[in-house]
Amino acid sequence: MRHRVTIENCNETYPCSEQQTLLQGMEQLGKRGIPVGCRGGGCGICRVQVTSGSFLKAKMSRSVISEADESKRIVLACRCTPTSDLSISVVGKMEKALRAECQIEPEDEVSVAAVG
Amino acid sequence: MAFKGVLRPGLIQIRVLNMDEAINHYQNILGLNIVSTEADGRVYLKGWDEFDHHSVVLRQAESAGLDYVAFKVDSNDYLREIEPKIVAWGLEVDHVPAGEQPGVGPRIGFTLPTGHRIELYHQIDMADDHPGITNPDIYPRRPEGMGASRFDHLLCYGPNIGKAREFFCEVLDFYQPEKVDLPEGDGSLAIWLTASNKAHDIAFVEHEEPGKLHHVAFLLQDWNEVGAAADIISINDVSLDIGPTRHGITRGQTIYFFDPSGNRNEVYAGGYTAYPDHPVRSWDFDHVGKGIFYYERALNDRFLTVLT
After folding, report:
1. What InterPro entries has UniProt attached to this entry (chain A) (predicted)?
2. Is A40 in contact with B306 (Cβ distance < 8 A)?
3. Number of domains comprising chain A
4. Residue A26 belongs to what domain range?
5. pLDDT digits (tens, 9 = 90+) for A11-60
6. In what order do the strands lie in the sheet with A12-17?
């Protein structure tokens, strides 16, 4: 089953199946700014905060996602699969790169303005 | 014997998040052979061209990364004599009893100023499934997966790499075939160190956070095998980092990818033959892109930021 995942930082929405990780779906957006790391829950590059919706998560390296992070639904996009439509906020290293990506693409100007 | 003291990086213990996924990767993708699984859950593997009992140890843990790398030395005498020299240089040495790993004798261990644990050992049993010795065939049977022949080297990220160079070169008689200079001052951004004829046995990149692993490398025979490894990576949807490409530094032919816990692996072929009397090859900071990725001539972000 496919769900809609909204990246709040730039108001982009992408489809993501229950067999795909949030990162795999995001990679298919083709945004150059998405810094894909190890894709295995080890490096911590793809930190996101899930602000609404349900998902399943696989084991993530404790050195990059603390228990406190998990209680705030901060997870690694490469280790989570959606079970409903989701809203996520990109945090950490990805956030800066995504914003830069939004700014260099003219069609995203409105969403950049919305983010402020 | 002209080749004395430290022989090679012989053992590496890697932390993985899920052992079943890790076994599939290191056995079926890389082509290492499982030697044993012990009661504490650790799994021991080796490449087809290694005589020693094992070279890779997988340990399931809450965080991915490197537990330690252990260098094999040529004698028990060396192991005994090197310990006070390590202490005199300023590192605290601890002892790991024989049998802590199956088939391995006593080891000594210490932590570098970069935050990495290094061990030294001499005794290790010969593997049952070792390369031929008498009228040896080129290999005992066709290797699985990429057919990685041995654990070759590793790249560590951490602070104080200049101190690590001093330690390896002054205490353990390594030498430095190659380095990348920092843009300002006399320091190095990256150093390649060897105890042997290989262009590197261990390398370091200067980095704020101590004890980080950049990659563990395994040896392939040639460029064709690197290409076949790339095929296997795509067929099995293994997380690719970069390559196939070539390093300007060491001249190695390479592909980088990740194990299922995010530890970076490299399979590597070629590279020049190093000698301790050769000049140190140096790269300006402005040319580091070509040094690391010779064909792309630019570093990708992942090379400097994605670590376990």
Report:
1. 2Fe-2S_ferredoxin-like_sf, 2Fe-2S_ferredoxin-type, 2Fe2S_fd_BS, Beta-grasp_dom_sf
2. no
3. 1
4. 2-111
5. 889 999 999 999 999 988 877 667 789 999 999 999 999 999 999 999 99
6. A12-17, A2-7, A86-90, A47-52, A74-76
ipTM: 0.89
pLDDT at A28: 86
**Mean pLDDT value across chain B:** 97
Q: What is the pLDDT of residues B230-270, one digit of tens each?
A: 999 999 999 999 999 999 999 999 999 999 999 999 999 99
Domain annotation covers residue A99 = yes
- CATH, residue A43: 3.10.20.30
Residue ranges and CATH numbers for the domains of chain B are 6-121 (3.10.180.10), 151-305 (3.10.180.10)
Residue A116 lies in a domain: no
- Determine, yes or no, domain membership for A55: yes
Contact A40 B261 (CB under 8 A): yes
Query: Do the beta carbons of residue B86 and residue B118 sit within 8 Å?
Result: no
Are A63 and B260 an interchain contact pair (Cβ–Cβ within 8 Å)? no
The 3-state secondary structure of A34-102 reads CCCCCCCCCCCCCEEEEEECCEEECCCCCCCCCHHHHHCCEEEHHHEEECCCEEEEECCHHHHHHHHHH
Distance from CA of A90 to the nearest CA of B (A): 17
- Among candidates A36, A42, A93 on the partner chain, residue whose Cβ is nearest the Cβ of B261: A42
Show the low-confidence residues of chain B (pLDDT under 50): none
Residue A45 contacts B, CB cutoff 8 Å: yes
* Residue contact A40–B64, C-beta within 8 A: yes
Name the residue facing A38 among B18, B63, B262 (closest C-beta). Answer: B262
DSSP letter for B285, please.
Answer: G
Partner-chain residue, chosen from B65, B261, B305, that has the shortest CB–CB distance to A45: B305
